[in-house]
Amino acid sequence: MAREAGTSVAVVSYVINNGPRPVAELTRQRVLDAIEKTGYRPNGIARALASGTTKTYGLVVPNISNPFISSMAHALQREAFANGQVLLLGDAGDSRQREFELINNLLLRQVDGLLYTSVDHHPYIELIQSTATPFVMLDRVDPAQQVCAIRVDERAAAFQATQHLIEHGHREIAIICGPLDMLNTQDRVNGWRDALLQAGLPVRNEWIFATSYTRPGGYQAAQQMLKGRLPQALFTTNELQAFGCLRAMAEHNLTAPKDLALICFNGTSNLNITCRH
Fold this sequence. Notes:
By secondary structure, the chain is an alpha/beta fold. The chain has helices at about 1-5, 10-15, 25-40, 45-50, 65-80, 95-110, 125-130, 155-165, 185-200, 215-225, 240-250; strands at about 55-60, 85-90, 115, 135, 175, 210, 235, 260-265. Helix 8 packs parallel to helix 9 and helix 10 packs across helix 11 (about 240-250). It is elongated. It starts with a helix and ends in a 13-residue tail after the last strand. Keywords: DNA-binding, Transcription, Transcription regulation.
């Protein structure tokens, strides 16, 4: 291409990389015309080796089918693109083994950094640290590990959601939560419990319905709840669970908020459910 433009390889490099040396406008235009004529495309791998950066980041998430996770991934991808970066998505599909393989593959691709939320409370932090790759956890991690993390205070958020129901006059409040061995589930259940205890209301263990963070999970938990005495209000700790709950209620000719006040956690633009008078 340098021959086509009638200039040196170095000058072509200056034009493509916008420096480090200035190029006369006429020469620059000749190089651009040559690029268009030859259909030249820069070698991304070679440029990465030369610059020490791939302009590529990895995002590893537990399950992209979760609307909250997909909304977050979409926002991160949009920001990466706006800043001239590429974001590679790794969907673990709720598999710890697959999560390990995804992280390993992204590290082998020499991504410039990782954004990571783990399937469970045992993230592969040491694996990432062994490569000195910068990373940010999008999750709760042990403070003793001293890693960068961005997280929601899920206990406080669950407290606020439950308190909202209490402020609307509800005194019998059930909860549909995730699997009890998950840290975020424990945070959300504790926030629900904190709000009830602060208001002097009883904590009924029979009104804790643990299930998966899915529509079927919410549906099955609601069906179980509807076999007993109906509470005044329900806190579902996930948007998909709320959808499943509404389906179960409809099958019993019940509606929200007329028959059961309903509020959910992790809502996206797909759903806006809250309690009303």
